[in-house]
Amino acid sequence: MDVLISIGILIGTLLIGIPVPFCFTATIMWMVFTGDYNITSLIPVGYSKMNTVALLAVPLFIMAGGLMEKGKIAKPLVDLIKILIGDRKSGLGTVAVCASAIFGSISGAAAATLSCIGAVMLPEMKKANYPEGLAAALLVNACPLGLLIPPSCIQIIYAWISYQSVLSCFLATVGPGIMLTVLLCIVNAVLLRNQEGMILAEPSSLADKLKEMGSRTGGAAPALLMPVIVLGGIYAGVMTPTEASGIAVLYSIPVGFWVYKGLKKDNFTQVLVRTSVTSGVVMCMLFVVMILSRIYVMEDLPGAILTFLQSVSDNNLVMLLMVNVFMIIIGMLMDDTSGTLLCTPVLLPVVTHLGIHPVQFAAILGVNLGMGLVTPPTAPMLYLGARVACCKVTQMLSPTFYMILFAWLPTLILTTYWSDLSLFLPRYLLGVTF
Which terminal Cβ of the chain has fewer Cβ within 10 Å, N or C? Predict the structure, then answer.
């Protein structure tokens, strides 16, 4: 009963808007005051879990994402992609989705991807007479690609909690990330098929496109080189994720200052302050959630969840469906980091009992939490997108539902029930057996 009340406290405090770290702290306090737990014995649990070099990658990737956002690294990427497909009716939407995927692989954060790509693409889409709600909804649904296209901060956190290889978790999300990118582009094209009054760029020959692409590649090369250095170094075994995150920070500073000239002395200081605050909040959250997860494990909450699922149905497919629904709700209530911290220790024992490998669960978790970020009624990215695009949320709802139904849900279903979608790359590139 105390565990159920603690879950009620957690959900209730989240719904009324209390900051996430305080919600977890309140839940811990309830379990301490009503149970047999001693706070002095719980604090070392949080400290010992956080005492690892791997976690340094999280604040460093957060800082790298902030520097890239202010450094105007997204625009040359967008210009490069726009050359090939910008003269088609759905071309700018495809550019927005692909640019979000590429920038997401650099920044690893949904909010940074939305604000940065949105600032570049929304004026272009407005000039082309894109429907306002569709343009905003497309960017909102594409920004969580940063959770799937590596490097991803939540995958580092997941690997740390679940004792899995960071590289395996990175590779597991590539297949679902590419699938979601393709499906979002298709849904956008279908929604625009009968749209009249679009203002398109003048069509040009393939030779002209290739010539222009060649001239712009030089300008985009420093931005494109970032994921090559970071991911190439990790996959080649030259760097650990922590070392790669440090290289990303060091690389983004001169590129932002002297190549793209988006970084200035003033906004550089602002980025450092803002990302430091964000990192501090994340570290505080890591500390309290690790304590809460230890309490839940000691209370055998995973066993209780499994027993409940088995009482509803003994079919593994149905139980996995219910687990997915739970994670979508968590994604609607929490940010992606909080959702990862809560779901991993509680649900991982459940899904492994149902036959899901922990590396596959990394991809399932990423898709679920990304989908939760755009799923009404809470949908934090939906409201952020409305502010970025200066449009009403109601205008975004219809296209968002189409994208959830025909892009997010198919990706989630295949990631859950077709293991090769997420496990093929780890098997092929790392030679591991699952």
Answer: N
